[in-house]
Amino acid sequence: MEQSGPLLETLTRRLADTPVDFLAPAKLGGQGELVVAALVHDLLHRHGHGIQAAALRRYQPADGEAERNRLALVAIAVWLLADEWFVAAHPAPERLLAQLDQVSAELAAGAPAAQFVRDAERREELARTMLARLGWRPQGESAAEAADRLTSISGVERQRLLAASREAELRARAVREALAKKAAEESADKWTRE
User: Fold this and answer.
1) From the centroid of its chain, how far is CA 29?
2) Distance, CA of 167 to CA of 91 (rounded, Å)
3) Are 66 and 30 in contact (CB under 8 A)?
4) 24: burial class by Cβ within 10 Å (0-12, 13-18, 19+)?
5) Which residue ranges make up each domain of the chain?
6) Cβ 73 vs Cβ 106: under 8 Å
């Protein structure tokens, strides 16, 4: 979140105004109507990037209800990333695709995709998460403020911080146990010498 980005309100308003076509069921296993790979292709084209056929294959899975929710969130995120501000910022295509995949998969695991259009808090979560992963923060916020707000609103960020905290506690416990063992060994050596 090194660089200042667009106004958060602009992005959340864009999400609230997501066209109904982007909310259609994703084409999956012969059912549905929205071809998400085509939306991603159009997003890359809008950003001035060439066609990446291999990269588009991951948006054409055969089946799975979890995949349907992920693809629905990809479609919503494509609408967000097609905003003029993102087009003008011109993120690298590899980074754009990587974050589109990662953010969509993480957020789709926690909530139905439609909530990221209907619910104000989920809209803010998607906008803030996408901005942060691409290296920006909302205009008018410091990096610390943006990180704090993202952590407070995002279930994914909370889980990530909890996991990091648990890992740090395990490392600290291992260090304490090693120090206690070393102290016990030194004490035993002292007694055997005397």
Assistant:
1) 26
2) 33
3) no
4) middle
5) 3-153, 155-194
6) no
The pLDDT, as a whole number, for residue 86 is 95
Q: What are the φ/ψ torsions at residue 64 (nearest 5 degrees)?
A: 120, 125
| 83 secondary structure, DSSP code | S
Bridge partner list, 3: 136
The two structure tokens encoding residue 32: 């549905």
CA dist 30 and 141 (Å) reads: 45
Instruction: Tell me the pTM.
Output: 0.78
pLDDT in tens, the chain (194 residues): 679 999 999 999 999 999 999 999 988 877 888 999 999 999 999 998 877 777 888 888 766 777 889 999 999 999 999 999 999 998 998 899 999 999 999 999 889 999 999 999 999 999 999 999 999 999 999 999 998 888 888 776 666 666 777 788 888 888 888 888 888 887 777 777 66
The structure tokens 């259609």 sit at 24
Beta-ladder partners of 31: 28
Question: 112: closest CA among 79, 148, 71?
Answer: 71
123: closest CA among 183, 174, 77? Answer: 77
Q: Which residues are CB-contacts of 62 (< 8 A; sequence separation ≥ 6)?
A: 28, 29
